[in-house]
Design goal:
globular; alpha+beta; Nuclear Transport Factor 2, Chain: A; 6-stranded mixed β-sheet; 6 strands; single chain; 142 residues
């Protein structure tokens, strides 16, 4: 049953992200939460964050959009404490083209809290959309 509970936590995470309510997202993250973007280039985009930095990055990205980013789960597979998610996103930007990316995430869940996320996505598209706003601000060391 833990596998289904872990998948439910991840579904609630996506609902919280889509609501653009950082408190709802933070409630699902463990105190030792760790996020890592598994990207090669540009260097500034492939980085790591803890809870607080992750929350502030979400808010900073949302502030650049005309409405909340919408992330959709395409598929989900789970085993042990891991939940793998294929997802897409769409976020209309205040300036420039919309942000629309594809992802693969690996979530790790413990005691109904997410304690690790590995994100694989198109770094070229992310850099094209967000780079001009805050290239060095999001994924710098905490």
């Amino acid at each position: 049953m833990a596998i289904e509970q872990n998948k439910d936590v991840v579904r609630r995470y996506f609902d919280a992200v889509n609501s653009t309510q950082p408190d709802r997202v933070m409630a699902l993250l463990a105190d030792d939460f760790h996020f890592k973007a598994m990207l090669r280039e540009p260097d500034w985009l492939g980085g790591e964050m803890g809870r607080e930095k992750f929350s502030s990055a979400m808010v900073a990205m949302s502030d650049l959009m005309t409405s909340p980013i919408q992330m959709q789960i395409v598929s989900m597979t789970a085993e042990d404490d891991r939940v793998a998610v294929e997802a897409t996103s769409y976020g209309p930007m205040k300036a420039g083209p919309a942000y629309a990316n594809s992802y693969h995430f690996v979530f790790r869940v413990r005691d109904e809290k997410i304690f690790e996320v590995l994100e694989y996505s198109c770094s070229y598209h992310a850099a094209q959309i967000f780079g001009r706003f805050f290239a060095e601000q999001i994924f710098t060391a905490e």
